[in-house]
């Protein structure tokens, strides 16, 4: 590959990265409450109706899948995935839900012209309540993603760093159905129940 083609490819990648970073840094309004029907997996586990409330001492995980735009632009792994554990308090109502964890992502494109490295470190917190009559309980959750991303380009004497940071809040109402998923542009959240 000649130098002209290499620099054309690097210039195209950098131009795409600049547009992505500019879009990521636009001020955003608070995230609206996500409505609509949840999308269950093909084989969800449906719990039998019971006289006992399933909320007290419930536990599980929320699988978080986030599209990593600057990685996708150059053909690297496009999704960062994390399993975030949560638990529900016992005692009496309201049954408080809490949980936290992190998502860490690193991928590198190595070419003749140089390298393109993308890292993402994101803290995820889950808060809310478990409520509803026996057999129709739901998790009313706020999921907060607080992350930092860095793109580093090293190419034939050129070195550039492109940082991004941001916080996004999502509001969901999950029925207590194992495998229930909520999805939107650039993100997927899947509920997995332990008990």
Number of helices: 2
Strand content: over 45%
Low-pLDDT segments, ≥5 res: 1-38, 44-50
Mean pLDDT: 81
**Helix proportion:** 10-25%
General shape: elongated
Model description:
The protein is mainly β and 195 residues long. The protein has one domain. 14% of the residues lie in helices and 57% in strands. It has helices at residues 3-24, 69-73; strands spanning 39-45, 59-67, 79-88, 95-111, 114-131, 138-155, 158-175, 178-184, 187-193. The radius of gyration is 21 Å and the shape is elongated. The termini are far apart.
Topology:
Blueprint lengths: L2 H22 L14 E7 L13 E9 L1 H5 L5 E10 L6 E17 L2 E18 L6 E18 L2 E18 L2 E7 L2 E7 L2
Antiparallel strand pairs: 1-8, 2-3, 2-9, 3-4, 4-5, 5-6, 6-7, 8-9
Structural features:
single chain, mainly beta, 9-stranded antiparallel beta sheet, elongated
In short:
The chain is mostly beta strands and about 200 residues long. It has helices spanning about 5-25, 70-75, and strands at about 40-45, 60-65, 80-90, 95-110, 115-130, 140-155, 160-175, 180-185, 185-195.
């Amino acid at each position: 590959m000649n130098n002209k083609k290499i620099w054309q490819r690097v210039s195209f990648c950098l131009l795409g990265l600049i547009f992505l970073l500019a879009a990521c840094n636009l001020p955003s309004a608070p995230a609206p409450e996500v409505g609509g029907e949840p999308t269950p997996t093909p084989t969800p586990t449906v719990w039998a109706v019971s006289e006992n409330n399933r909320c007290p001492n419930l536990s599980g995980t929320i699988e978080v899948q986030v599209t990593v735009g600057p990685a996708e632009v150059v053909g690297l792994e496009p999704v960062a995935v994390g399993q975030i554990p949560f638990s529900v308090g016992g005692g009496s109502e309201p049954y408080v839900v809490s949980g936290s964890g992190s998502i860490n992502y690193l991928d590198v494109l190595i070419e003749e012209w140089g390298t393109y490295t993308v890292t993402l470190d994101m803290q995820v917190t889950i808060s809310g309540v478990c409520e509803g009559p026996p057999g129709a309980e739901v998790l009313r959750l706020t999921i907060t993603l607080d992350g930092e991303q860095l793109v580093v380009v090293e190419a034939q004497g050129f070195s550039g760093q492109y940082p991004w940071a941001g916080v996004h809040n999502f509001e969901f109402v999950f029925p207590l159905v194992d495998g229930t998923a909520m999805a939107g542009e650039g993100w997927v959240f899947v509920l997995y129940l332990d008990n």
